[in-house]
Amino acid sequence: MRAVLFANGSYSQPEVIKSLLQPGDLLIAADGGAVQLLTLHLLPEAAVGDFDSLNSNELEKMENAGVKILRFPPKKDVTDLELALQYAQSRGAKDILLLGALGNRWDQTLANQLLPAAVAFSGLSIWLVDGNQEMTLLRSGQTLELTGRPGDTLSLIPLAGDANGITTQGLEYPLKEENLQFGSTRGISNVFLGECASVKLEAGMLLCVLIRASR
Question: Do 150 and 115 fall into the same domain?
């Protein structure tokens, strides 16, 4: 099962959100992310958070429609989005699409980008998507297969230390069992040569950011 989580961040191309959804997706709102769903005339299965970003009418509309409301106190140890991820995981979702996870607050944005690196979510495939930009995490021993078009950009950013034994295919600047140092920008702005590319990682963690060129 795939879960689609709507966070309370920015949506640079809200008009294309419905095209990202698939039949059978489990829709979950993280607090104010419910506003985006309601704007699209969609309802989540569940809304999670302290609901400081929703007005009473929006919350009442979801409750009356049978949406499961999971309310948490404002003073808590994790963000509403992390709580929504935990709920998706408890429902058995293995593939996660995060929408609206980026925004004007750098602290929230950075924390959301690092959520896939949490040990608790190591068994999940998590993608953050906003407009033409997509992001996921690659762990030790994993291979990422990507589809795109010539000219699309792929950046590889090491997390929590160096990323070792990286082999890429289908990119303008190939790597063959090479290392990227934590804090280095060497892995930024590689380019698709064709419609397919792959990244294999032996050890470490890589944040992989795909930017699709304008068509």
Answer: no
Domain housing 17:
2-131
Q: Do 147 and 154 touch, CB atoms closer than 8 A?
A: no
127 and 206 together in one domain:
no
Q: Which of 145, 189, 142, 140 is nearest to 162 (CA)?
A: 140
CATH number at residue 146: 2.60.120.320
> What residue type is assigned to position 105 of the chain?
R
Confidence of residue 74 (pLDDT cuts 50, 70, 90): confident
Could you tell me if 37 and 119 lie in one domain?
A: yes
Taking the C-alpha atoms of residue 163 and residue 2, their distance in angstroms, rounded to an integer, is 28
Q: pTM of this prediction?
A: 0.91
Is 156:210 a contact under the CB 8 Å cutoff? no
CA dist 1 and 87 (Å) reads 13
Please tell me the total count of domains within the chain: 2
Residue type, 50: D
Do 144 and 119 fall within a single domain? no
| Residue that the structure tokens 């050890």 belong to | 203
Report CA-CA distances (Å) from 36 to 5, 17, 116.
11, 10, 23
CA distances from 74 to 33, 79, 85, 98 (A): 16, 10, 18, 22
